[in-house]
Amino acid sequence: MTWTREKVAATIDHAVLKPSLTDQDIVQGCQLGKKYQVASVCVRPSDVAAASRELAGSGVKVSMVVGFPHGANRSEVKALEARLAIQDGAQELDMVMNIGKFLSGQYDYVRDDIKAVVNEAKPHGVLVKVIFESCFLTLEQVAKATELSIAAGADFVKTSTGFADGSATPEAVATMIKTAAGRIKVKPSGGIRDYAKAVAFLEQGADRLGVGSTAAVLDGAPANADDKY
Q1: Of 171, 172, 194, 212, which residue is the least packed, with the fewest Cβ within 10 Å?
Q2: Given the residues 78, 158, 185, 197, the one annotated as active site
Q3: Smallest Cα–Cα separation from 18: which of 36, 42, 40, 37?
Q4: Are 174 and 159 in contact (CB under 8 A)?
Q5: Starting from the edge strand earliest in sequence, which strands make up the sheet with 12-16, in order?
Q6: Using alpha carbons only, what angle is made at residue 52 by residues 67 and 65, rounded to the nearest 5 degrees?
Q7: Which helix (H) or strand (E) holds 121?
């Protein structure tokens, strides 16, 4: 794969998730997503309807976070968030795994928690990405969480919310990719603030990128990035 600026942009979920963002900030985030033709604009639950209106007809999808940022919501609440988001126009859901239950070894709970969201999403063709918050996990635990996500029927595994102590690392992404073995897609997220790092994760085998600093990443591409990197 030769990574051009356009191809990199098409892998980005542009994150518009900070708690202080206003309605106008959401509109501007969607406009930025349209300008660069990213994969999706990822918004908070209360912003899905507005983002859907703003992105209509643009080819850019609306994605939304579920159980964000801690993952500790009850499964029924996560399922309801997913259902309402889909009604509002969400096409992809980025849900936070219940990290505390996972670290407690309650793997059936974690799998079923993910499945509760998957069961809402699948009938509507909506993708589900499972956020691990990998900074809290060993690489062995990252592999286990990947297997649970596959068993629950999710479409992606994702490293981070961007709101915890750590970000995506090549080691965690490598573990996800190896464990996935083509059964689920991989999304590094958190700390991707320049073009070289974005391309490095894509060359490693990632399928999607979670990026908040989308303009900085893409505008920081080398002069020949329209041809190759």
Answers
A1: 171
A2: 158
A3: 42
A4: no
A5: 185-187, 156-158, 127-131, 92-96, 61-66, 40-43, 12-16, 209-211
A6: 10
A7: helix 107-121
The SS3 of residue 119 is helix
Residue 91 identity: Q
3-state class percentages of the chain: helix first, strand second, coil last, to nearest 5: 50, 15, 35
Q: Is 78 an annotated catalytic residue? A: no
Q: Is 94 a catalytic residue?
A: yes
CB 144 within 8 A of CB 107: yes
Segment 130-187, tens digit of pLDDT:
999 999 999 999 999 999 999 999 999 999 999 998 899 999 999 999 999 999 999 9
List b or e across 202-212, with b for residues whose CB sees 16 or more CB atoms inside 10 angstroms: beeebbbbbbb
Phi, psi of 139 (to 5 degrees): -65, -35
* Domain covering 5-219, topology: TIM Barrel (3.20.20)
Residue 158: active-site member: yes
94, 113, 144, 155: the catalytic one is: 94
d(CA 11, CA 154): 18
Q: Does residue 227 surpass a pLDDT of 60?
A: no
**For residue 170, cis peptide bond before it (omega within 30 degrees of 0):** no
